């Protein structure tokens, strides 16, 4: 999953992108409208636990964002300042749930409470070396369940009535299948042209031969 709720409007023209080739990007929006829609995945083998990161930490959240999105072109937040991260993470109803394998962060789910009992799964994914081992389905199941019971942790919030997310053709090849297997239903599809931005990597030159 990619993109950010604070950056949905197309940014102003960037001279650095002049002459860059464009690619067609398909974005799919999916939803659940009842807790009974959730189809949980089996827990993976091994020592995997999922913990909420309750103390807002721009450093940690940027690490998760840059590491999970390193090879799938997550770039929207790479330019955020420390203050922007702090402001976003301190918003009521924003939660970060982190999967750990034997104490090492493997991936995360970011939730954002919205109006009228809606919760968006804003970001979800695994660091590349942890994919393909059953952790992703388990993490998505757990994160979706936490979206459904989010109001229990935020006094004054209405009960969740809808959980939604979007994914795109630049995400991992198994992302859509994972969402459908967890009971999400497609409700919108869009195709837009976007600059063909190079894969950022967790640091310059990573994942390239």
TrEMBL record:
Gene3D superfamilies: 3.40.630.30. Residues 58-198 form the N-acetyltransferase domain. InterPro entries: Acyl_CoA_acyltransferase (IPR016181), GNAT_dom (IPR000182). It holds the Pfam family Acetyltransf_1. This is GNAT family N-acetyltransferase. It comes from Streptomyces thermoalcalitolerans. The lineage of its organism: Bacteria, Bacillati, Actinomycetota, Actinomycetes, Kitasatosporales.
């Amino acid at each position: 999953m990619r993109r950010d709720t604070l950056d949905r409007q197309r940014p102003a023209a960037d001279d650095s992108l002049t002459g860059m080739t464009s690619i067609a990007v398909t974005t799919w929006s999916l939803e659940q409208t009842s807790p009974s829609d959730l189809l949980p995945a089996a827990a993976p083998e091994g020592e995997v636990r999922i913990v909420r990161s309750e103390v807002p930490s721009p450093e940690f959240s940027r690490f998760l964002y840059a590491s999970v999105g390193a090879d799938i072109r997550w770039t929207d937040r790479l330019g955020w300042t420390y203050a922007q991260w702090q402001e976003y993470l301190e918003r009521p109803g924003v939660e970060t749930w982190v999967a750990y394998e034997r104490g090492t962060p493997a991936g995360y789910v970011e939730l954002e409470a919205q109006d009228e009992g809606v919760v968006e799964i804003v970001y979800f994914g695994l660091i590349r070396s942890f994919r393909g081992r059953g952790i992703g389905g388990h993490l998505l199941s757990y994160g979706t369940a936490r979206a459904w019971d989010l109001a229990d942790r935020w006094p004054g919030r209405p009960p969740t009535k809808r959980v939604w997310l979007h994914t795109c053709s630049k995400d991992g090849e198994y992302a859509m299948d994972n969402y459908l297997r967890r009971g999400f239903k497609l409700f919108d599809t869009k195709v837009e042209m976007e600059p063909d931005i190079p894969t950022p990597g967790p640091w310059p030159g990573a994942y390239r031969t």
